[in-house]
Amino acid sequence: MNQRFDFAFSPAYRLPARAFGINPDTAWVQVAGGYLTARFGPWRLRTSVDNVVSTDVTGDYWWLKTVGPPHLSLRDRGVSMATNRDRGLCVRFELPVRALDPTGTIRHPGATFTVADPEGLAAAIADEQDRSD
């Protein structure tokens, strides 16, 4: 099963995102073939759905911490790929994953994706995990 989720772009995020090559054509999350794959402009994240330990819908993000390119949390090393401040899906991983740093020196124990359907993305991950069992 192949499910693709588009990011929900709010007007205040469109121009800053575009400066980093992030637009509706280059920003999406896909669940397929046992993998969770995200593209956010030139940045990529890919991991097995079996590496996902939890998902939570979150929101009310601070604009300065989410606008533009992906952001690294100094608190927990998580990565945020955000196109709005309202809501998204926080995904936690058993083994930290690559996203910001192509060398893999910095790995992320979690990622937040502000897709248009965060509940649908959570369900797709759960369904794909069930299929891989």
Kindly describe this structure.
By secondary structure, the chain is α+β, with helices and mostly antiparallel strands. It has one domain. The chain contains 2 helices and 9 strands. It has a 5-stranded mixed sheet, covered by helices on one side. Strand 3 and strand 4 form a beta hairpin.
Main β-sheet, spatial strand arrangement:
5-8-9-7-6
User: Which range best describes the helical content: under 10%, 10-25%, 25-40%, 40-55%, 55-70% or over 70%?
Assistant: 10-25%
Largest sheet: 5 strands, mixed
Structural domain count: 1
- What is the helix/strand order? EHEEEEEEEEH
Strand content: 35-45%
**Termini separation:** 15 Å
Q: Uncertain segments of ≥5 residues (pLDDT<50)?
A: none
The overall pLDDT, averaged over residues, is 95
Principal-axis shape: globular
Task: Write a concise keyword list for the protein shown above.
alpha+beta; 133 residues; 4-stranded antiparallel beta sheet; single chain; 5-stranded mixed beta sheet; 9 strands
Structure at a glance:
The chain is an alpha+beta fold and 133 residues long.
